[in-house]
Design brief:
With 312 residues, the chain is α/β, with parallel strands linked by helices. The protein has 12 helices and 8 strands. Strands 1-2-4-3-5-6-7-8 form an 8-stranded mixed sheet, with helices on both faces. Helix 1 crosses helix 2 and helix 7 crosses helix 8.
Length: 312
Amino acid sequence: MSPRRLGAAAALAAVGLVSLLFGAVAADPVGAVLAGEALRLRAAGARSSTFRADDGTVLFVRELGPRSAAVPVVLLHGLGATSLYWTDAALALAKAGRTVLIPDAPGSGESEPPRDAVSGWGIPNRVAAVASLLQALGVRRADVVGHSLGGWTAGAFARAHPFAVRSLVLVDAAGFTPLDAEEADALRRRLSPGGRAGGQALYDLLFFRKPAPAFGFVVEGIARNYRRENVVRTLAALDARDGLAGREAELPRGTVFVWGGRDRICPVADARTSAARVPGARLFVFHGVGHDTPLEARDLFRHVLLDVLPRD
């Protein structure tokens, strides 16, 4: 084949590959992003393992750094997310010499759904899963960081297991905003939308600084992700009686609150109120940032996280 024909064939192959990749992203944008994050973690030497919760559910965790570290950092993801949500933060922590544990919550990512199809999706079972993780890996104390529903879980875990938590960082955490039954139902509907319009509204609710243009396939992909069984069942199982509001004094002294100033799900006003009730608490407000501070202000968030966590 002549050089000209070889060049044309190579160009056609490249176009075909780009078309194939774009098709995959358009069909499942969330899945495509997660696949890329998984590759980044594997390239950095992340290990994967499983452990069993008390109810027998097989749960999945990613680990970076030496398992022998005395006090690892546990990163807990929020609703609709998986352990891969924390890729940027985990890589920064590992580069700084920390050991990082990033579990998939029950029913999320590669973790099995809870055995109890009703109460197993709530906060108490998420807390039990974190306790099972530390027990399985022989970890006595950890620095615990949680975002959104993961922040609610982290706070509830710190209350239930105070001696297992050296420090606590709550990022745009749920559980501090009291909602009546009508408000809670409205929020559940907004967090599990139908159609493109619902997906667009959810995208606007989650992000002030959009991580990607609001193309139709993007918002539809996000809407599909939030209509999955694990999201719907978790929303149905959340109970205000497990909330953190009014119980802030039971959180560890010096708890760090990191919040987006434009958070429309967990308002910063509630974070200010709650932080004032925790002895020695610190509150960092990221102005012009919505509910997903780790994604909307990646560099600044990594800097603050590394600064507030205790040095080993």
